[in-house]
């Protein structure tokens, strides 16, 4: 989104004004399940589903 208001643009730029401490990083690291969340390329059925969609986008759906 775009903004034309100076105050809003300054707010948008301030999103990086934070720090993560060791406890935050520990919580984040627990979120990693060592498994893809979007496309599990270890499953043939998932790879096939995407391949079929790319070959015939009208006939199949993701």
What are the salient characteristics of this protein?
62 residues, mainly alpha, 3 helices
Structure description:
- The chain is mostly helical and 62 residues long.
- 48% of the residues lie in helices and 0% in strands.
- It has helices at 6-13, 22-31, 44-55.
- The longest helix has 12 residues, at 44-55.
- It is flat.
Name the helix and strand elements from N-terminus to C-terminus, one letter apiece: HHH
Strand coverage percent? under 5%
Tally of individual domains = 1
The pLDDT mean sits at 84
Protein name: Aldo/keto reductase
InterPro entries: NAD(P)_OxRdtase_dom_sf
Organism: Candidatus Blautia stercorigallinarum
Brief write-up:
With 62 residues, this protein is mainly alpha-helical. The protein is 48% helix and 0% strand.
Topology:
Layout: H1 6-13, H2 22-31, H3 44-55
């Amino acid at each position: 989104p775009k903004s034309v208001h100076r105050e809003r643009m300054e707010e948008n730029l301030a999103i990086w004004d934070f720090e993560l401490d060791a406890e935050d990083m520990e919580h984040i690291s627990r979120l990693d399940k060592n498994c893809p969340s979007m496309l599990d390329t270890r499953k043939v059925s998932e790879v096939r589903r995407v391949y079929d969609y790319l070959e015939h986008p009208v006939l199949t759906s993701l």
